[in-house]
From TrEMBL:
Its main location: membrane. This is Multidrug export protein MepA. Belongs to the multi antimicrobial extrusion (MATE) (TC 2.A.66.1) family. MepA subfamily. It is found in: Cell membrane. It is a multi-pass membrane protein. InterPro entries: MATE_fam, MATE_MepA-like, MATE_MepA_subfamily, MdtK-like. It comes from Peptostreptococcus canis.
Length: 454
């Protein structure tokens, strides 16, 4: 990121605003673009699921769920580089060390580009075994659809990693608006091309993958143009020095996000593998219910992410009372929203699932899964912000423990224990129990370490 960008009037205004303006109003301003950005990701997934559901084949819906676990791993890597570089950039801006912020931006982007190209190459070479590992072996039809979809999605990996990295750098440095616009344009393109490829051009199921690919490419181009108005990253690449300290901050600073997202991906793969014994309908019902829940969950997480630049920049400026106040506001509002959302989703669970499928078995299983998860969803408000808080104040290890607990420390062992003891009912209860246990752990760790940070 160029010093012109970091030293311009807008950058100074952002820093002044975050360090001085009323906290609650600031949270709303920073969270709204982030919430929209999170919803764009959800709509990406729901759009594909909706249009594919019109083909009336549960194996196709299940294939999208299988490939989604792979896409989550790609997102995890993007979050790793984006959060790692963006978080330390925000701190450096708070310290008025703009030259270092510029260097961290470029390092994060270089990591994203190189990793994206390498992952795409190896994924294409090993696409068949990859499809099996992801859980696409429940039936021959599911495996065929998974391979077809994955071949197209693999092409988008370098674009996706690059875009996610830039988006998070912009967001964590207080410029979430441009990041949101880039993602929003990509989502609209995907929404337009889904029915065109699937129905008009008669690509069928794989048409949704092409629409997603084009959406990723357009989002990448748009973010590059928007970021290019304020910085000139690429001209600095040859001058960057990869010191141990800089690599440490980018890689370790992004580890909590990478760990959370990658553990989520692994847990999805394992869940698909275990659930395969119950057929494609079980995987399809979990795919649909998860996407519906994601609407409320991503809004809550987006709200919590609005807290991050406020926390990091004020912490870097040693304004600890503002950090505490922001934490409390974020938890309170997030929890209230999730309580209301849970009630609505619980009441209308069957109607919402019915929008995505006409299969009676998928409808009943999906409704049951959705209602059970609604019972504990309000706990996500505190849980989400606690990991972000620990990450922003530099307690990376504690943040990592919190972020991997929900889908890793508790979810994965319980998956095998509960499915073995309770069968299909164990899978239904898996996420609610895991959410409860991870909330308790987060509460204990934040209570223990919060006051020691000031």
């Amino acid at each position: 990121m160029s010093s012109d960008y970091l030293n311009n009037n807008k950058e100074s205004e952002i820093r002044y605003e975050i360090l001085t303006k009323p906290i609650f109003r600031l949270l709303i301003k920073k969270a709204v673009p982030t919430i929209i950005g999170m919803l764009v990701t959800v709509i990406y997934n729901l759009t594909d699921t909706f249009f594919v559901s019109l083909l009336d084949n549960s194996s196709m819906i299940a294939a999208i769920g299988v490939v989604f676990s792979f896409l989550s791993i790609i997102q995890a890597i993007g979050f790793w580089f984006g959060y790692g570089s963006g978080n330390i950039m925000s701190k450096k801006i708070g310290e008025k060390n703009t030259e270092e912020a510029e260097i961290f931006s470029t390092i994060g982007i270089i990591f994203a580009i190189v990793s994206g190209i390498l992952i795409a190459i190896f994924s294409r070479i090993y696409v068949l075994p990859l499809s099996r590992v992801l859980g696409g072996f429940a039936s021959n039809e599911l495996f065929i659809f998974t391979v077809e979809y994955l071949k197209v999605i693999i092409i988008s990996i370098p674009f996706s990693l690059y875009a996610i990295t830039i988006y998070n750098q912009l967001r964590l440095c207080g410029n979430a608006k441009d990041g949101m616009i880039g993602l929003l344009i990509g989502m609209v393109v995907n929404l337009i091309f889904d029915p065109i490829f699937i129905f008009s051009l008669e690509y069928g199921f794989v048409g949704s993958a092409y629409a997603t690919l084009i959406g990723h490419i357009i989002a990448c181009i748009t973010l590059t143009i928007l970021a290019g108005k304020k910085r000139n990253t690429f001209s600095k690449m040859k001058k960057i020095k990869f010191t141990k300290s800089r690599i440490y901050h980018v890689l370790l600073g992004g580890i909590p996000n990478f760990a959370r997202q990658s553990i989520t991906s692994i847990s999805l793969i394992l869940l698909n593998t275990v659930s395969a014994q119950y057929g494609d309908s079980m995987i399809a019902s979990m795919t649909i219910s998860t996407r519906i829940l994601a609407f409320a969950q991503m809004i809550a997480i987006g709200w919590c992410q609005g807290f991050q630049p406020i926390c990091a920049m004020n912490y870097g400026a040693k304004q600890y009372e503002r950090v505490k106040k922001a934490f409390n506001y974020t938890v309170f509002v997030g929890t209230i929203f999730l309580v209301i959302s849970s009630l609505i989703l619980f009441i209308y669970a069957q109607d919402l699932i019915g929008i995505m499928t006409s299969d009676n078995e998928v409808l009943m299983m999906g409704s049951h899964i959705l209602r059970l998860q609604c019972i504990v969803m309000p706990l996500l408000g505190y849980y989400a912000v606690s990991g972000m808080y620990m990450q922003n104040i530099g307690k990376y290890f504690i943040a990592m423990i919190i972020t991997i607990s929900r889908q890793g420390i508790f979810f994965i062992p319980l998956l095998y224990i509960m499915s073995e003891i309770f069968g299909k009912n164990g899978i239904y209860l898996l996420q609610p129990i895991s959410d409860t246990m991870s909330f308790i752990l987060a509460f204990i760790l934040v209570k223990k370490y919060k006051d020691d940070s000031y």
